[in-house]
Design a protein that fits this description.
Chain lengths: 368, 247
């Protein structure tokens, strides 16, 4: 244990004395948060929407056919209470709910105006906005067409409710994304580079000749990055709460526990890369191309996964950051607990165990 | 004589597929001896040394280091040896003191031991003023001396030096050898590889490897006599010329 501590202290000296490392460590999260503040637009298609039709009259059916005919939406009929609606949103499949009031057609006939309620999952701001706009324009279309034959025009007003994120703060989507990105960069790239650096400078040989166990060398090298990554998580959360005004709705403890799990996944990846490569440049390239890019593409952070071709959607499942992104988003924005997230957590845990086993195994082979 | 053998090697062999890197080498090294391990690049020195340090398992043959078996007791071997390589064994962005503390730490010395040893070491090297400077800022010769001192910090029975004096001037090299003699006088066995033939002359006994085999093993004087050579350079040249393996 004393040996381990001596080692960890040395690692901290390395990190704290390297200005570039420090800059990446602490400058990056801030820069990322600011850069991604400019939200990105993305398209929506084939979104699953739920219809609660209390009216079941001609007008509501006509409108539904139009919505269903659009390539943007897939309709699922259901008669649900408000409480159940909340439940379906938490499962994440349904993007919006359209509710027709009981007297939809009557209202139009007698009062010349009626309301349609649109409820969207605004934890993903872009998608929510997009869906609302599409739905509204379909409704407008219908209204205009009907009005051509009428003396007194009908007016259908969509009443929009943005669930989870009523002020439509764009930051909601990207804070979890930045978190995944930063942790990945710190944990995968920095760990890989710092281990490979010891190989390059020849100090790894000295460590292997010492009585310090080789496996412990690896763990001792990874440990400071776990600590620093947790500092980063804290920094990002503080930034999001106090600068971006985004509270964490769910349990902060759970958020930290899940982050720790993801950091360990990343460390295992970093260790694996460092064992398989011998130069810092290669380690960095693999970390960037192999880890960072898939995270940007496949975590659902920049591009909605449901819009991708099926093969890409399948590929996205093997990207650990995708699961972490879902978890963080659910905890921070929807305020969900572990009971709703055990599946994602289990997947992440499985990936971690697998990666750790693979890297330990290849490490042993390398030693021979 | 039997009792003070710290390295005993018998037909030690390492094969990588069809390639025999080290071919049945047999030799003993005694306590306090400075043993020169010479050979052209690719002759199999590094492989042999890795086996002796417990880093790589031999394919066949026997060897004990400080009485411990290279197959089964690598942990004990590692506790009893020191190692310094041609590439720097120290961390450049740590201070002199932090380097000493780190290596003392991973060799399991107590805080008390580390404190007294650090003070002794700094005084012996005359580096008290540099204790809190980064190693990167020291001249090469100082780094090497410090590196050697760190390698013997935990008082190992044997210290392995892999081309320890590459790239330094003759004066510094001479000073470095003074340190090696001092260590040998205090009972530490020194196992050293080098490409400098003047350094080979400083060794008590030297062996020369050619194509994985240990061709000769004797004192520098005896070697020069048997090869009718004036210097070790000539001995080495006569042997290495027959080598089939190059870099």
């Amino acid at each position: 244990m004393k040996q381990f501590l001596a080692f960890v202290r040395k690692e901290f000296y390395h990190v704290l004395r390297d200005r570039r490392t420090l800059l990446i460590l602490f400058g990056m999260p801030i820069a990322q948060i600011l850069i991604f503040g400019f939200a990105l637009t993305n398209e929506v298609k084939d979104s699953e929407i739920l219809v609660v039709d209390y009216a079941k009259d001609n007008a509501s059916q006509e409108l539904l056919t139009r919505i269903g005919a659009s390539r943007y939406f897939n309709i699922r009929q259901a008669a649900l209470s408000h409480k159940e609606i909340l439940g379906t949103f938490q499962k994440g499949k349904i993007k919006a709910v359209v509710v027709f009031p009981v007297n939809f057609n009557e209202d139009l006939l007698h009062h010349n105006k009626a309301q349609v309620q649109i409820i969207t999952d605004a934890s993903d701001v872009n998608t929510a906005n997009m869906i609302t706009n599409y739905l509204s324009s379909i409704i407008m279309d219908y209204q205009n067409q009907v009005n051509q034959n009428l003396e007194i025009p009908y007016r259908i007003t969509p009443e929009v409710r943005m669930l989870y994120n009523p002020q439509l703060k764009g930051a909601h989507g990207f804070v979890p994304g930045v978190m995944a990105l930063v942790l990945l960069l710190v944990s995968v790239m920095m760990t890989a580079i710092s281990i490979v650096r010891e190989k390059e400078t020849g100090t790894m040989e000295i460590l292997l000749v010492s009585p310090f166990k080789p496996v412990l060398v690896i763990f001792a090298k990874a440990f400071p990055y776990l600590a620093l990554s947790l500092v980063n998580v804290t920094a990002i959360l503080l930034l999001s709460v106090f600068v971006l005004d985004l509270p964490v709705k769910g349990s902060v403890a759970l958020l930290f526990a899940e982050s720790t799990l993801f950091i360990i996944t990343c460390l295992a990846l970093g260790i694996f890369i460092s064992i398989e490569t011998d130069s810092q440049q290669i380690a960095m390239l693999i970390s960037l191309m192999g880890m960072l890019l898939p995270t940007m593409m496949f975590s659902g952070f920049l591009f909605p996964i449901e819009n991708m071709p099926l093969p890409l959607q399948i590929i996205s499942n093997i990207v650990p950051s995708k699961w972490f992104y879902i978890i963080v988003k659910s905890i921070m924005i929807k305020g969900l607990g572990i009971s709703a997230l055990w599946k994602e957590t289990l997947i992440l845990l499985g990936m971690t165990v697998f990666l750790l086993l693979v890297s330990l195994k290849s490490f042993k082979i390398r030693l021979q | 004589m039997q009792d003070d053998r710290v390295i005993v090697c018998e037909k030690l062999t390492k094969r990588f597929g069809d390639f025999i890197a080290t071919n049945e080498i047999t030799f003993d090294v005694h306590k306090g001896e400075i043993f020169g391990f010479l050979g052209a690049n690719g002759a199999g020195k590094t492989t042999a040394m890795r086996m002796l340090c417990g880093l790589s398992s031999p394919s066949s043959g026997k060897a004990t280091i400080a009485g411990y078996d290279v197959y089964t007791q690598t942990e004990q071997i590692k506790k009893n040896i020191g190692y310094m390589s041609q590439k720097f064994s120290l961390y450049e962005n740590l201070t002199v003191r932090e380097n000493i503390e780190f290596f003392g730490g991973i060799y399991g010395l107590s805080d008390e031991q580390i404190r007294t040893k650090t003070a002794q070491l700094l005084q012996r090297l005359g580096m008290q003023n540099e204790a809190n400077k980064l190693v990167a800022s020291l001249p090469l010769g100082w780094k090497q001396k410090l590196s050697f001192s760190v390698a013997v910090l935990h008082e190992p029975k044997i210290v392995f030096l892999d081309e320890p004096t590459g790239g330094v001037d003759p004066v510094t090299r001479r000073q470095f050898w003074d340190m090696i003699y001092e260590a040998a006088d205090s009972g530490i066995t020194v196992f050293v590889t080098t490409h400098y033939m003047d350094e080979a002359e400083y060794c008590h006994r030297i062996s020369i490897m050619v194509d994985g085999k240990m061709e000769v093993l004797d004192t520098p004087t005896n070697l020069k006599n048997s090869f009718h050579a004036r210097s070790m350079d000539e001995v080495f040249y006569q042997l290495a010329r027959g080598a089939k393996r190059g870099d």
